[in-house]
Amino acid sequence: MYKILIVEDDSIIAGTLKNHLCQWGFEVRCIEDFKNVLEETADFTPHLILLDIILPFFNGFHWCQRIREFSKVPIIFLSSASDNMNIVMAMNMGGDDFIEKPFDLNVLTAKIQALLRRSYSFQGNVNVIEHQGLLLNLSDATVLYEGEKIDLTKNEYRILQCLMERAGKIVSREDIITKLWEDDSFIDDNTLTVNMTRLRKKLDKAGLSDLILTKKGIGYLLKE
To answer: Which sequence positions fall in the DNA-binding region (predicted)?
Structure first.
């Protein structure tokens, strides 16, 4: 089942779209917190986004550009502001299509289906893990927090991935070392300590202080 995220602050339009698309067999979610569009996108991992231009706090151009920092998910702009400049801006920010309001629901559905066919006949789902606003993209090994990229080494990235995949649960040192060995990163207990220290410093510098907690004699876990 394809998942569609609706970023539209008009509750009537959003509700109408959701009901219509659910009837076509899509799983649909509407954004409610317009300050946290990135977090909800990462949490829902949609196959397609319907995005209005005029929104609370930040406009659709802003969110499209931010989403493009970690995802290639198809984005269709929906807006009554359909002058040529807005259409050009929408495409330049990373949009895939632009539909003027008011629109015919059946035409919109046809465009959605066509874009989904083109997008997923040759590529898999975008795979993103999110925790406390930290975004880890498994498709290209990038890490973002508040729009800023965090540069990690291969081992640091693998350690963070291991912890984020089991967020809220204690991960033993032995499990992390085993995970790294499976990826041909041959490290011992001392090397893990060094990598963990460097990873914590980089997360702290990015504004994520004490994200990784130590359970003495057991392992590590991510702070909820």
So the answer is: 126-224
